[in-house]
Structure to design on (83 residues):
């Protein structure tokens, strides 16, 4: 999926989500951690989905889910342009 992202995508990510980082996770990992995975057709990023925790989850359980998913994800940095 990341090989489909262009410099323009990274600029849009930076503009729209300036205080966020791009993480790469699989839908299977998110589901295994208890999240619901939904396509986001309104988004501009190829392969982007929304992961949502259960609505009735308590704070401590949510933190455990988030920690588990974070350990399965990789933070992605845009490659430096080659000269």
């Amino acid at each position: 999926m990341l090989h489909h992202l262009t410099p323009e995508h990274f600029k849009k990510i930076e503009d729209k989500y300036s205080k966020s980082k791009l993480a790469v996770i699989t839908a299977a990992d998110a589901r295994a951690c208890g999240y619901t995975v939904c396509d986001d057709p309104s988004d501009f990023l190829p392969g982007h989905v929304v992961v949502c925790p259960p609505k009735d989850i308590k704070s401590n359980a949510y933190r455990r889910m988030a920690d588990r998913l974070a350990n399965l994800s990789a933070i992605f940095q845009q490659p430096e342009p080659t000269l």
The CA atoms of residues 23 and 72 lie 10 Å apart. The longest strand covers residues 36-39.
